[in-house]
Amino acid sequence: MKKNDYIKITFPDGAIRNFVSGSSGMDIAKSISKSLLKKAIAIEVNGEEKDLCEGIREDAKIAILTLDSNKGLDIMRHTLTAQVLAKALKNLYPDVKLAIGPTIENGFYYDFELDRSITIEDFPVIEKEMKKIISNGNDIEKIYKSKKDVIELFQSKNETYKVDIIKRANQENDFSIYCQKNTDFIDLCIGPHLPNLKHIGSFKLTKVSGAYWRGDSSNKMLQRIYGTAWKNEKDLNSYLDMLAEAEKRDHRNLGKKLDLFHFQDEAPGAVFWHPKGWMLFQNLINYMRKKQDEAGYLEINTPEILDKSLWQKSGHLEKFGENMFTTTTQDHKEYAIKPMNCPGGIQVFRQGLKSYRDLPYKIAEFGKVHRYEPSGALHGLMRVRAFTQDDAHIFCTEEQIEVECVKLCNLIIEIYKDFGFDNIVIKYSDRPKKRVGSDNIWDRSETALLNTIKNLNLPYEFNPGEGAFYGPKLEFVLRDAIGRDWQCGTVQIDLNLPERLDCSFINSNGIKERPVMIHRALFGSLERFIGILIEHYAGNLPVWLSPTKVVVTTVTEKCSDYANEVFKFLSSSNIKTEIDLRNEKIGYKIREHSNSKTPIIIIIGEKEKENNTVSVRRLGSNDIETLSLEEFVIVTKRQLRELC
């Protein structure tokens, strides 16, 4: 063969081998080992996932994908929904019209049109048919067709939704069709798919809902079946157990049970905080305020409504306009409720002349912002339309970027650990194709962020090309008590807004210069962070966070006078306390306060009254500790001082 009949294949470990041009992923896996060939399900070529049967005709970096990877699992789930669930629906309900079947986090769904309504009672029958299809172990084949041919093919099958997809596509050839060998089932799909149904692991259908075609309410309402799939039964059961535990911890139910907040139709996506919930909210703000004071931040507050022209200058109107709330006054002036705090922060920085000696200039704001989220996306505290961000903006020189980012990362990690999150992953995203700013300052910014996480020995994942158009960013992902990941904090370097909003300082040469702007949020949304905390702790918040720290309860009415003395002493000691003097059995009162997640229950009986002591029961323990009142206050205040 000629030299140019060969291609160079680079493997994940950096090894390079020559292969014949046109070699497929299957050929490459086979050349490595029989065991890899047996496990291989797809191939990644220069970052793009492809079917094992696809030939490679140029030098490339590749990775063989198996079910041991998240990408492999995603391909398996996609094959399950497109080739198994779709075929099962066709087998059981021949008149069904298939729409789309993508994957989602940990699972998949399929949209379809059917005259009869599918319910969860139908799932056992559908799952049985799916398992029957999988047991045949059919190979999956991929063929390409022209637009004309593929339209005719799906028209002949009366698959109107597939035809609609094809007609809207901006291509004329190479429409990929997947079919199962020895069957008449076909589906239109970009892929990739498994090479064989034998690779499908364990699955379960989970719920059914409605969905408008293309998400447009003017279109027909389709039915949607959701499911989850995993490598094996063990992984599936672990996930289902996690879902069951998540349901128990649902912050919406616990929020109602603990009387923290509610929502109602008159203010969709906005929280009505009850006294205890608002106390929890303020506890977070007080904690963060203390941390920010220690770190040298100045707290500000900016207007919630600003002239529309400012949002045009900042670029937010162009980028986020459809999600902004706007209004026109009687004198025909247009205003917008702020979706972000950044432009307001810049207006504060711009007041008065700033020198390089004033930098870094750190300003923080607990700013209320509003964004229009679709009704179907609203989800308790996790997804709202009105929320409070713990924003901060650091104005600094290019030379100060790395130092400030190190301080930021240390602060963020410290704060998350205070809240009980020890498993933290950082995601680093560099420059996208469409961006502002010179390559020189992008180089500096990216180097600063990378050096920060490397020098601090922090684990991180790399998301190439996923930075904001105005600068690279870090995202902080927390893993909660039941293994779920939550993206919370962000650090973003902005090369855009200082220019757009004419922000400058006087450098050491007496010349005006643009500062670098670092955006920082630690909780992100306070509302969402509270939702995460409630679910992480299953409502059993640490004493320092809990709205009520202590409840004083009496065994009999004879102890009420002493109980009142204890209550007043604790309250005067700045320990948030409630008192329960009801004429109920002490066991009933303890159960009730335990169910309401009060961290500390003080029991006052005749013995305690006589000895001037308190009996203490802590949430989650059946042990009772007897202390003098003074000892209890010292211990509790020490516990509160650690973080409050």
What share of residues is helical? 25-40%
Name of the CATH homologous superfamily of the largest domain: Bira Bifunctional Protein, Domain 2
Strands of the biggest beta sheet: in what spatial order? 18-22-23-30-27-26-24-25
End-to-end CA span: 74 Å
Rg of Cα set: 30 Å
Mean pLDDT: 92
Approximate strand percentage: 25-35%
In CATH terms, what is the architecture of the largest domain? 2-Layer Sandwich
Major sheet size, sense and barrel closure: 8 strands, mixed
Q: Runs with pLDDT <50, length 5+?
A: none
- Please identify the top-level CATH class of the largest domain: Alpha Beta
Summing up helix and strand content along with how strands pair, one would put the structural category as alpha+beta
DSSP helix count? Answer: 20
Tally the structural domains: 5
Note down, in words, how this protein is organized.
34% of the residues are buried. The radius of gyration is 30 Å and the shape is globular. The protein folds into 5 domains: 3-66, Ubiquitin-like (UB roll) (Roll); 71-242, Threonyl-trna Synthetase, Chain A, domain 2 (Threonyl-tRNA Synthetase, Chain A, domain 2, 2-Layer Sandwich), CATH 3.30.980.10; 261-302 and 347-536, 2-Layer Sandwich (BirA Bifunctional Protein, domain 2), CATH 3.30.930.10; 304-340, no CATH class; 550-641, Rossmann fold, CATH 3.40.50. The protein has 644 residues and is of the alpha+beta class. β24 (424-429), α14 (439-455) and β25 (460-463) form a beta-alpha-beta unit. α3 (70-92) crosses α4. The strands form 9 sheets. Strands 18-22-23-30-27-26-24-25 form an 8-stranded mixed sheet. The protein has a 5-stranded mixed sheet with strand order 2-1-7-4-5. Strands 8, 9, 10, 14 and 15 form a 5-stranded antiparallel sheet that branches. The model has no long low-confidence stretch (mean pLDDT 92).
